[in-house]
Amino acid sequence: DYALYHSKERKRGSTTLFSQEHEDAIRDARAVETALQSADLAAEMEMHYQPILDTVTDRITAVEALARWTSPKLGRVPPDRFIAVAERCGMIHSVTLLLLRKALADAARLPPEIGLSFNLSSHDLASSETVIAILAAVRRSGLDPHRITLELTETALMRDFEGAQQAITLLRALGIKIALDDFGTGYSSLNYVHRLPLDRIKIDRGFMADVETDLGRSVVSTILDLCQNLGLDGIAEGIETTEQLNAVRGHGCRYVQGYLIGMPQPMADLLDGLRKMTPPAEPVVV
Ligand code: C2E
Ligand code: MG
Ligand code: MG
Ligand code: MG
């Protein structure tokens, strides 16, 4: 049967296509792993920062740190690719801490009313060693923990729900906020979202593509109602057009993020942009 199936597939060419893609993916992951293991991570990695807008005050309320790796061997490698590899080859603990320290150091340059949001890998909360190291890094940075949000995905919670719950409680006791990232892309969000001590929910950008259709609108407004009922801030991700911005605002979404508001950029560029947005209160006398 297998041979028959196989030859049928082969005739259509899909087996060959699949195994070719599969082989490419494996080769790619190996190349990333090799480059990662021999990388000077501190020198090759930097963080970019994307603004999150409070539409009520019309001010930037926080920035999300997004990792950027330029490998001398591979060029730019997007975080979706190298984080997964770091998780598999046991490097995620050191990668997370390196990136977090960079983000905390950069955040010292932000005005004190602006918060820092940082993405955790799904492996991070499962390791008490990592959680303790995160707490130590935050304390050593001197940044007010109330300004820090840690973003988690559903995968992180499903990996070990009890463990994640404990870690979240510990982090929140220090004042750190917790956001559930990419909300709506997992398969069981509604099962546990009310059982977790969360502060924010980030509505996945996949929903914004449809937000102008009736069905898309009703999905987004349902998620926003859920946020409101649970007393959580909803943040709409991936806002690219004014129509999308108006649609989510119309449903009471206060916080928005996306290319329309600002691109991920180096801290220096972000600070320049902020200065242009908020001119000095006193006229400058030359
Ligand atoms: P995420 O946390 O959901 O981050 C949002 C992603 O959407 C970012 O991609 C951002 O550049 C992109 N984005 C923002 N606005 C728009 C928009 O208007 N349109 C579109 N099409 N895209 C937009 P990026 O930087 O490639 O990061 C991808 C993912 O990699 C992140 O998704 C996050 O899960 C992960 N990641 C990034 N930095 C880190 C990190 O430092 N640590 C860990 N563990 N994961 C990270
Ligand atoms: Mg995120
Ligand atoms: Mg997201
Ligand atoms: Mg994502």
TrEMBL record:
Domain EAL: 29-278
Keyword Membrane among UniProt keywords: yes
Keyword set, alphabetical order: Membrane, Transmembrane, Transmembrane helix
Organism expressing this protein natively: Methylorubrum aminovorans
Name by which UniProt lists this protein: Diguanylate cyclase/phosphodiesterase
Shown stretch of the complete protein: 365 to 650 of 650
